[in-house]
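Batch job 17 of 40 flagged for manual review because the log was empty.
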Amino acid sequence: MIVAQILFLLGAVSAPIVQRAPAAAFSPACAGAESRALDFWIGEWTVDWTTADGRAGRAESVVLREHGGCVIREHFRDLAGGLEGTGIYSYFAPIRGWSQTWMDNQGVTIHSTGGPSSEPNQRFQLRLTRGPDPNMQYRTVWEDVTPAGFTWRFQTRAGDSGDWVDQGVSRYRPRRDGGGS
């Protein structure tokens, strides 16, 4: 008990002396504008979502830039105790696009590619390289990006044509205690 109190006091006394290290400089390989396309997403977020069947929920999402600025990692956690997952995103110059891998506690692993979108109101788009149904196409879209947040959509469509249909719509808002960029 005394050892714990001493360690706590040492931490409390020395805390003001410790300074945060400056933010790491970007690796030259990841300093270009194309590698910064998801910078709007960096931060801490409250996420409210609804699914196509009307279910709703709330989550928290922490999105970090790591490894010399070359990797963006999302930590997603359903506040009701359901889904927890991690998405890893990076710009890959040889394909002139972004690559993403998502893994979660439901046993799902998803691989996607894409990048900045030219469609109206869309900022960024990824297409799944293979979904559970080979006759469907799958994509995720970040849209309506403002300082107050953005909308993220998971969409499907049958075959190579037709309208995209929302399967889930999430609204990301900066957390009050330290939000997104």
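Reviewer: the log was empty due to a logging misconfiguration, but the result itself is present. The chain has one domain: 44-174. Unflagging and moving on to job 18.
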